[in-house]
Amino acid sequence: MLSLLLPAMLAVQAMALMEVYVPEMPVVALHGGDVTLNCSFSVATPFNLSDLTVFWQLTDTKRSVHGYREGHDQLVDQAESFANRTSLFPAQLGLGNTSLLLSRVVVADEGSYTCFVRVQDYGSAALLLQVAASYSKPVVTLEPESNLRPGDAVALTCVAYGGYPQADVIWQDGGGRNLTDNITTSLVANEKGLFSMTSVLTVVLEPNSTYSCRLINPLLGEEGYASVTITGQNIAFPPVALWVTIGLAVCLLVLLIALAAVCRRKIKESCEEARREAEEAKMLEEEESKTAMTLLKS
Ligand SMILES: *[C@@H]1O[C@H](CO)[C@@H](O)[C@H](O)[C@H]1NC(C)=O
Ligand SMILES: *[C@@H]1O[C@H](CO)[C@@H](O)[C@H](O)[C@H]1NC(C)=O
Ligand SMILES: *[C@@H]1O[C@H](CO)[C@@H](O)[C@H](O)[C@H]1NC(C)=O
Ligand SMILES: *[C@@H]1O[C@H](CO)[C@@H](O)[C@H](O)[C@H]1NC(C)=O
Ligand SMILES: *[C@@H]1O[C@H](CO)[C@@H](O)[C@H](O)[C@H]1NC(C)=O
Ligand SMILES: *[C@@H]1O[C@H](CO)[C@@H](O)[C@H](O)[C@H]1NC(C)=O
Ligand SMILES: *[C@@H]1O[C@H](CO)[C@@H](O)[C@H](O)[C@H]1NC(C)=O
């Protein structure tokens, strides 16, 4: 058994003599931008380009990203998602530079890429590509917005969108202390894979308080900031609501007095009218009875 395995292992080692170099740290690309995935090998002796074979592959799925053989790009088996977005640097190939230029980077490009190179010998190495996108400036809103009273629970919502990857959210009060209670953060991806982040902080209201939301994109080191200050204006009950209440009460009173005056006049008028009518009716009655009497006489 060993006698069978040993020559095979030696053969593999003999094939994998060539060193291939890629970045050890993940390569960060901006969404929508272009990125160069470095890959190189050391050439001991000059070689004929038609003897060079290069394959870029997705490490996990083995799908083809870009191929080069016998002096030409080989793209027949290229994964569709990379169509028209990849190229090598032809002038650099003879110098041992087999880097890949990837254009119009999307979130789905994130992952591990393997660079295979063969001249006489053979070697490969894998690198990690990470995609990043800047978030919009965060916006903080207050719910409910008005008629707040000290002691009410309010929800402060911090929203930012169009970013990648997930950002870190830090809520702080006016004194710069972290608020860690009652925070719920949610993440929604759009069709491009970019995130909208919503973080909701529930606080018990105190007058004169400031709440700020700080959003940090860990890959870009970018930071967005927004804050809301709750002043006497938001807290309505003492002055504003009281004046509104008094104002309404005064209006109501004036209205009632006016109504009463109108009613009294109306009542008086209708009383007089009734009396007049009654008198008229009496006179008419007397006349009629007189007529009747004359009729009886004749
Ligand atoms: C790619 O290689 C060049 C030249 O060696 C270097 O200047 C550059 O920083 C490398 N880029 C990355 C992302 O490693
Ligand atoms: C390979 O060549 C490209 C284009 O000149 C350059 O941007 C890149 O840094 C080179 N990479 C290495 C590892 O030399
Ligand atoms: C490279 O190889 C091709 C085909 O094998 C041959 O036609 C060409 O002459 C070679 N070029 C050099 C510079 O050796
Ligand atoms: C790539 O480019 C060719 C020629 O410009 C075009 O016919 C083809 O539709 C493109 N493919 C994609 C996936 O964009
Ligand atoms: C508070 O925020 C600072 C950054 O502003 C951070 O370094 C620290 O770890 C945070 N503390 C807690 C308890 O979250
Ligand atoms: C979290 O919010 C709930 C109401 O939404 C409140 O009852 C609770 O006291 C809050 N907890 C802390 C630690 O602030
Ligand atoms: C707190 O609010 C009152 C008015 O409601 C204001 O006069 C005072 O200056 C505020 N204090 C601080 C520290 O902002």
TrEMBL record:
Matching SUPFAM superfamilies: Immunoglobulin
Q: Where in the cell is it found?
A: Membrane
Q: Which residues form the Ig-like domain?
A: 7-134, 138-231
Keyword Coiled coil found: yes
- Gene expressing this chain: CD276
Provide one Gene Ontology cellular component. external side of plasma membrane
User: Predominant location of this chain?
Assistant: membrane
Q: Which Gene3D superfamilies is this protein grouped with?
A: Immunoglobulins (2.60.40.10)
Matching entries from InterPro entries are given as: BTN3A2-like_Ig-C, Ig-like_dom, Ig-like_dom_sf, Ig-like_fold, Ig_sub, Ig_V-set, IgSF_BTN/MOG
Name of the protein in its database record: CD276 molecule
Q: Name one Pfam family in it.
A: V-set
User: What does the record list as coiled-coil region(s)?
Assistant: 264-291
Leader sequence range is 1-16
Q: What is the lineage of its organism?
A: Eukaryota, Metazoa, Chordata, Craniata, Vertebrata
